[in-house]
From TrEMBL:
Keywords: FAD, Flavoprotein, NAD, Oxidoreductase. Gene3D superfamilies: 3.50.50.100. Residues 18-349 form the FAD/NAD(P)-binding domain. This is NAD(P)/FAD-dependent oxidoreductase. Signal peptide: none annotated. InterPro entries: FAD/NAD-bd_sf, FAD/NAD-binding_dom, NDH-2.
């Protein structure tokens, strides 16, 4: 940055500083929120500018995705609109394609550049916060790109809910045993939080929904969890992992450890142990990888593609660049042995964002920086309604107490009082009334019916699945 923009007078930023936040997830939103609070006077005087570049105009609270998929929470209450929360920031809906930090420039594409076909436009900055998060780590499994379903976004969660209910509709309306068997077979790949919680909630929802189908029973459905290692939910410890395995199998869920998905071409899931499952549903939750934009920067990366960071959340050896969350390899100063990195999960991301925001302000004002230090408190996981596991500060909980702890913890962490109140109200109402089991898959193709009426291509060539649950 130009030296004149770094001058400080009476502890305040003298010249205008342009701060670019890449990403609108946990770290991006919370860092921008912290900055707009700490720099409120500078923003008011025009001495600072905060720009947030994000592919979506909202932050998704991902721990609630399984409950949204199961219908316990409305999708709109799982997301936080960024423009409403970040009223003093400039929010750009788009993607940072590459970053040239030496020149303090990011190449950004937006909906407008896409319409005009002008390509990425340069966006200049003085301070950079990289928080793009992670993306699904898809392996070159035959058929996965064509038939797999992810579980990282609210759209995927709601699409999966619609898809599961629609498969039950298909099974209920056919006499063909092969079609019925494929429709009622659900394969989940990945035994971490995302896979176990998504499977637990959706199996619980489908079992409840089956009472409204005259010819579909819970035992007709086949739920399969495929995990490449020898255990599931490693985050909650060995004992609770074994309990979770026993609980899932007690619910007739086929859990296959040390097994891989070799293929799902032609809608047949082929596993490494030789098992074959004709299925219309393969949910891929087998890990994540750093966002591709990190590879398109001139910043130092680890062997796994994450940004090398200091305990103060600076990018190592690079001035005016900061990072946290999934994109950052941050040393865990509370862990043994030395050199251990903070795990890429929400517990660290939320706390790192606050320290990052504070340190960026300290840097602008010439003040000492704080060191990020947080000892891992534990983990909570839901396995369906009134079922869960939790390990908090060394204490292990199972069943209803763990499920209650899961809800209480995440209710306290979901951003804004507005969202907390709405989620609590929905939970209260769901305890008083029956579940909603309506599929709204047609939302994914809102123009299909009009095209049919207007004599468009769909009138002659209807889609394979007109409700949108492929």
């Amino acid at each position: 940055m130009d030296k004149r923009k770094r001058r400080v007078r009476h502890g305040m930023v003298k010249e205008r500083v342009r701060i670019l936040v890449v990403g609108g997830g946990y770290v991006g939103m919370y860092t921008a929120l912290r900055l707009q609070r700490k720099l409120s006077a500078e923003l008011r005087r025009g001495e600072a500018e905060i720009t947030v570049v994000t592919p979506d105009p909202y932050m998704t609270y991902q721990p609630f995705l399984p409950e949204a998929a199961a219908g316990s929470i409305s999708p709109r209450h799982v997301v936080v609109p960024l423009r409403r929360v970040l009223g003093r920031c400039r929010v750009i809906v788009g993607e940072a394609e590459s970053i040239d930090h030496a020149r303090r420039t990011a190449a950004v594409t937006t909906l407008a550049t896409g319409e005009a076909r002008t390509g990425a436009r340069p966006l200049r900055y003085d301070e950079l916060v990289l928080a793009p998060g992670s993306v699904s780590r898809a392996l070159p499994v035959p058929g996965l790109a064509e038939h797999g379903i992810g579980f990282k976004t609210v759209e995927e969660a709601i699409g999966l809910r619609n898809h599961v209910i629609e498969q039950m509709d298909i099974a209920s309306s056919t006499r063909d045993p092969e079609i019925r068997d494929a429709a009622l077979t659900f394969v989940f790949v990945g035994g971490g939080y995302a896979g176990v919680e998504a499977l637990g909630e959706l199996e619980d929802m489908a079992r409840y929904a089956a009472r409204y189908y005259h010819n579909v029973r819970p035992e007709d459905m086949k739920w399969v969890l495929v995990e490449a290692t020898g255990r599931i939910l490693p985050e909650v410890g060995v004992e609770l992992g074994r309990y979770t395995l026993t609980e899932l199998r007690r619910r007739n869920i086929d859990v296959r450890l040390e097994t891989r998905l070799d293929s799902c071409a032609d809608r047949v899931a082929v596993l490494s142990d030789g098992a074959r499952f004709p299925t219309r549903t393969v949910v891929w939750t087998a890990g994540v990888k750093p966002h591709p934009v990190l590879a398109a920067t001139d910043l130092p990366l680890t062997a796994r593609g994450r940004l090398r960071c200091t305990p103060q959340l600076r990018v190592e050896g690079v001035p005016h660049a900061w990072a946290a969350g999934d994109a950052a390899a941050v040393p865990d100063v509370t862990a043994d042995p030395p050199g251990t990195l903070c795990a890429p999960h929400a517990q660290h991301a939320l706390r790192q964002a606050r320290v990052l925001g504070d340190n960026l302000v300290h840097s602008l004002r010439g003040e000492p920086l704080e060191t990020y230090a947080h000892k891992y408190a534990g983990s909570v996981a839901s396995l369906g309604f009134h079922q869960g596991v939790a390990q908090v500060y060394g204490r292990r909980l199972k069943g209803y107490p763990a499920w209650f702890m899961h809800r209480a913890y995440h209710l306290s962490r979901v951003p804004t009082f507005n969202r907390k109140a709405r989620v609590l109200a929905e939970w209260t109402l769901s305890g008083l009334f029956k579940r909603e089991i309506v599929s709204l898959g047609s939302l994914e193709h809102p123009r299909a019916e009009f095209e049919l009426a207007a004599g468009g291509k769909h009138s002659q060539d209807p889609p394979e699945n007109p409700k949108g649950s492929s």
